[in-house]
Design brief:
The chain is α/β, with parallel strands linked by helices. It folds into two domains: 21-127, Ribosomal protein L30/S12 (60s Ribosomal Protein L30, Chain: A, 2-Layer Sandwich); 135-291, SPOUT methyltransferase, trefoil knot domain (Alpha/beta knot, 3-Layer(aba) Sandwich). It is 28% helix and 16% strand. The chain has a six-stranded parallel β-sheet, with helices on both faces. The protein has a four-stranded mixed β-sheet with strand order 1-4-2-3. Helix 5 runs parallel beside helix 6 and helix 5 runs parallel beside helix 9 (274-291). The longest helix has 18 residues, at 274-291.
């Protein structure tokens, strides 16, 4: 069985938060937002860049939709929220419901706390990473996406967003050669990070073997494959396996696939951005499910 290991920024697990909203015990009264001009004490400074590992890690989530989704996710343990006055008004219900420690600042002050060039849209949330799940927790008739060293955070975020739209049960990825599950990835996911559990594994080939043991039909996507995805068996439980755009699927990953398939594209370009390919593959898989 693949060892359950924290991921970067955490993937949604299936356990509730370890404490009450905003890190306070459950049932504690909500704390009203504070309107601070420019906090100067050490506790108010932005957290250091999060590292994978201990439970005390703090990740930063920015962008209005991503922050809203995190505030609405009961499993997400919140630390502190930084918002502009306009964003605080729009998020008033979520802030009150979670009782998160809130600082109302100017857009420029929030930008100083966010990563360089981050488009925060007036909202920046410090939170704990979501706990990953184990492969053994996957549903018996599930649909999962497996990523073989896809490293671009925007691509992985877009894949999570699409996966949430198609009710994917989990995203399986490697601990290494995977972007942090926060920041730009969470922004690109636009809330999808809170809805799709992430299974982070140390050895993808071994994890693929475990998927097979669970009965999952593993289909690898390759633009040079002889068969089209439409003509390939897509019965559930199903794992769609995608590789990095420059290298594709590695040899051991291919060897653990039950079938290889390509997207049937009518135009001159036969390969797509991995997130676009994932969206098309999920659409084909959904059509196949409805046809059975």
């Amino acid at each position: 069985m693949t060892r359950k290991t924290p991921n970067r920024g955490g993937g949604p697990g299936r356990r509730g938060p370890r404490s009450g909203a905003g890190g306070r015990p459950a049932g504690a009264p909500a704390r009203p937002p504070r309107h601070d001009a420019a906090p100067s004490d050490r506790a108010e400074r932005p957290s250091a860049s999060p590292r994978r590992g201990g439970p005390s890690d703090v990740v930063r989530i920015y962008g209005f939709h991503s922050v809203t989704a995190a505030l609405q996710a009961p499993r997400r343990e919140l630390v502190r929220l930084y918002v502009t006055p306009a964003a605080a008004e729009r998020l008033a219900a979520e802030i009150a419901a979670r009782g998160v420690d809130t600082r109302v600042l100017s857009a420029e002050e929030i930008a100083q706390r966010a990563p360089r060039d981050a488009v925060h849209q007036g909202a920046l949330l410090e939170a704990r990473p979501l706990a990953p799940i184990d492969i053994s927790e996957l549903p018996p008739q599930g649909l999962v996406i497996v990523l073989d060293q896809v490293t671009d955070p925007h691509n992985v975020g877009a894949i999570l967003r699409t996966s949430a739209a198609f009710a994917v049960d989990a995203l399986v990825t490697t601990e290494r050669h995977t972007p942090e599950f926060a920041g730009a990835l969470a922004k690109s996911a636009s809330g999808g990070l809170e809805h799709v559990p992430v299974c982070s594994v140390t050895n993808l080939a071994r994890a693929m073997g475990e998927l097979g043991d669970l009965g999952y039909w593993r289909v690898g996507l390759d633009s040079e494959a002889p068969a089209t995805l439409q003509a390939t068996r897509l019965e559930r439980p199903l794992a769609l396996v995608l590789g990095a755009e420059d290298r594709g699927l590695r040899r051991l990953t291919r060897e653990h696939c039950d079938a290889m398939a390509r997207l049937d594209l009518p135009g001159a370009i036969k390969s797509l951005n991995v997130s676009n390919a994932c969206a098309i593959a999920l659409s084909i898989a959904e059509a196949a499910k409805k046809a059975t």
